[in-house]
TrEMBL record:
It comes from Candidatus Phycosocius bacilliformis. The gene is hisS. InterPro entries: aa-tRNA-synth_II, aa-tRNA-synth_II/BPL/LPL, Anticodon-bd, Anticodon-bd_dom_sf, His-tRNA-ligase, HisRS-like_core, HisRS/HisZ, HisRS_anticodon. It catalyses: tRNA(His) + L-histidine + ATP = L-histidyl-tRNA(His) + AMP + diphosphate + H(+). GO terms for biological process: histidyl-tRNA aminoacylation. Homodimer. L-histidine binds at D91, L92, T93, R121, Q135, D139, R304, Y308, Y309. This is Histidine--tRNA ligase.
Amino acid sequence: MSETKNSAPSRPLARTPRGFIDRRADALMAERSVVEKVLRVYESWGYERLETPSFEYADALGKFLPDQDRPNEGVFALEDDDGQWMSLRYDLTAPLARFVAQNWDGLPKPFRRCAAGPVWRNEKPGPGRFREFWQCDADCVGSARPEADAEAIAMGADAVEAAGVPRGLYVVNVSNRKLLDGLLAKIGIDAGDVRTRLGVLRAVDKLDRLGAQGVELLLGAGRKDESGDFTKGAGLNPAAISQVMAFTATRKATRKETLAALAEVVGDTELGGEGVAELAAIDATLAALGLGEDRAFFDPAIVRGLEYYTGPVFEVELLAETVDDKGQKVRFGSIGSGGRYDDLVMRFRGERAPATGFSLGVSRLVAALSAAGHAPQARSGPVVILALDADAMAGYMQMAGQLRGAGIAAEVYLGQSGMKAQMKYADRRNAPIVVIEGSTEREAGNVTLKDLNLGAELAQSIDSNEAWRKERPAQILVPRAGLVAAVQDMLKR
């Protein structure tokens, strides 16, 4: 609607785009704390930090370009003034592949790099799934050894624990794409029959959600869900369905038992045999590194990146029960993942460069920790100096400067409200201490310090306002000259 001469100007609606969120200090501190803890784990395994631009040329992202005229499906893209399309990075791996190809001759090989930063996905958001979020990755480019995959798995487990997930509340589920490829070859599905292959793989991927019966229906004619919607199946014959279901039943109580079951089902195929051998080498390395079944488990039903991964794949599953803000149960599922991708650098160089890596979804992990009741401790705010007398502002500013000079975050209240509102402000700022200097204190050369954290604790044991005023809990009077030392002592307590 256009504005008339006498109408008020229209105002934009203040709103956040879907899939994007604002983050205040506590959320930012939680995420940055996780990032630094995880990066330190990566560095302890010998990985070098690398930072690449937020934008990459769209053709460097390859697999996310269904439409060359406007390549913005899955990514946020724009056309540069030279006619080339650029996209906000979808992950941190595609930029790594471009960097490695661009600097191949000067890099040590294998090249171990770790990185953290925001990534953007033009996809439908969901619970704990945003369109902008942080990832924290570690990748090894140049090694085809299965020990490199085992190292990524063990390092990922260490990273998840360092981020704040207690042992026992997560597990790294491990599989190998070659197992599924061997199975497909065994039941006679041609490599060129993409529709049937995807139908089988997607059915297997739903095992944990639909159970064996649901998967069996999806492998055949199809399945009707509770709402009445029908999903067309892969169309396999009964003999082929039986072999696929035997494959889904190969997960056993231990990694070695799972390996033995896999050898029975797909070990007689070329790719299946390679997959079993690689998992056996990974198992030996994990055992040497001290990772038992409680931290890393073989689950052949894991399906990841159908056009991306070429060998071992793994994902970190959060086992903790989580609830949303309405008290309803939420299944976060995977909070980190990785695997072997030997073809990514080849897009640039024309030759294979073996690579494997692990990626932790930082934003998703922090959301999951919060939902599971393991949120990082709230960040303490600054010491707040109340401004009770307008004529004394210079002295208040001086006190704040002295505290900051001693390394203590401090601020002077700069509003126009009275003492009660200023105390409420300090509480909302999560201030640990309030400094009070009225005319009485100033004339005597003193200041009053109020410990808000201790006061909140003591308030629970005081029954009346009269007792509160009389006892003045967590409040002390100190000489103005001893302000810094007194605040330091109170903060230590």
